Amino acid sequence: MTSRRRRPAVAALLLCAVLGAAGLAGSSGAGPADLRLAAAGTDPVEGGPDQALHPLPPRPCPDTVVPEPASATTVHFRTPGKHLVYEYVAVYAPGVAAQVAEDLRADVQRCGSGPGYPAHHVVRTGWWGEHSTLMERVRDDSHRMDAILIGVAVDKLVIVMDVGSDLLRTGDLTIASGSGADAIRRAGGDPTPVPETPSPSPAPADEWVTVDAEVTAVRRGTDPAEAVVELAVPAGAEQCARDPRVSAISEDDERVRGELRVDSLQNAERNRCPERAPATVTLTASAPLGDRILQLDNSSQWAPDGDGYRRCDHLWGCDGPPADPCDPSWWRYAVGDVPQHATWNIRACDGTWAVLEINDAAGACGPEGGRPGCVETARWQRYFLYFDNGWTTVAVGRGAGCGIVHPQQPEFPAALCESLPAL
Asked: CATH number of the domain that 171 lies in?
């Protein structure tokens, strides 16, 4: 495996310095450290999403206009469950942030349920402060969605968006709600529910439901046929979790499979268990576990590692990625949200830097012959990438030479880009 290289200076700027330069440090008594995300041990990284795929701030209507803020910053991080979450904080003149939040909510209600995709829907309002809105943006007919919370912290517009994991690619409203409330609080706001007008209809009653329990660690048990599974279960109120368990256990010579479940008292109208608490269960196989892999639910695999187990990579599995960063199998995961039938062209790769071109219109008309009357029009895009235990996009564009990448990443080798033609 290629040894870890130091990330270029531009990508290694401290988040505190970024937030201070964006003008957030002096607003409402919140300093840079107060605005720093604390994502389960994962530091946030500066940078926003691809605006064509995940617009931030959202644009519910074709004519939606978001006023230019005095300053703004966007960072992103991965949750323990590998969900990709973006946090956007924009500073406005007094009173403007609240109006922007209300206008965005009105646009969702005005345009959100129209024909076609993306489709926007309001899920809940007022639960995270007076001007807050929890919404979903359904991206396509497979119902993949972005989960978005919009809120206000004094003179700041705060938006948190969960776009999902690389495997599922659909956001989680619970993650957006919890991360959004934290972001509003750190920005100096008060994410508490606004008193609601009593409804003439009775509120839905709490009811027990069975939910997935998130696996956080696995270790070997005292019996060779046992593994101790550590979980994160719903918490924050009475009776949030009971009977954590392993069910549907099956096994063969290579794997032992099990489903982690817990019962939780939930309410359809409100998130009564927004927190997480630790719990432990024991998985017992019919024979010693030995070197067999544990597959806990569909997306979590754990491989033996000494006296314990290590979580297998969510993309590469338990064998890990190829040692050569230029191996072709890397490219499918180098750029997110690329259509399945897109075509790829690797223009250059030296193990640290690379140039990748993608035509995301390939296959748009279906298999060979396509749909009658459908004409494919190539949509090539060029990605400039940097490798540090994975490929990261540092610039995107269609222009010739190094003019796209050097203003954003001066350290990109000229030899890899100076002869590139315009797309």
From this structure: 3.40.1000
Residues 43 and 151 in one domain: yes
For 50, the token pair is 């691809």
Number of other residues whose CB lies within 10 A of the CB of residue 36: 16
pLDDT, tens digit (0-9, with 9 covering 90-100), for 44-58? 888 899 888 899 999
* Number of domains forming the structure of the chain: 3
The verdict on 27 and 122 lying in the same domain is yes
Burial code of 202-241, b = ≥16 C-beta within 10 A, e = fewer?
eeeebeeeeebbbbbbbebeeeeeebbbebbbbeeeeebb
Q: What is the mean pLDDT of the chain?
A: 82
Report the candidate in 50, 36, 37 with the shortest Cα–Cα distance to residue 78: 37
Is-contact 66 104, C-beta < 8 A? yes
**Domain co-membership, 370 together with 343:** yes
**Tens digits of residue pLDDT in 102-154:** 999 999 888 876 666 678 889 998 888 889 999 998 887 667 889 999 999 99
| Contact between 397 and 412 (Cβ < 8 Å) | no
In terms of Cβ atoms closer than 10 Å to its own Cβ (0-12, 13-18, 19+), residue 366 is exposed
Give the SS3 label for residue 161: strand
* Single pTM value for the model: 0.42
One domain for residues 241 and 270: yes
Residue 422 counted as domain residue: no
320 located within any domain:
no
- Asked, for residue 145, whether it belongs to a domain, the answer is yes
> For residue 331, with 0-12 CB atoms within 10 Å meaning exposed, 13-18 middle and 19 or more buried, which class applies?
buried
Assess whether pLDDT exceeds 90 at residue 306: no
The boundaries of the domain holding residue 390 are: 328-416
| Residue recorded with tokens 């140039």 | 355
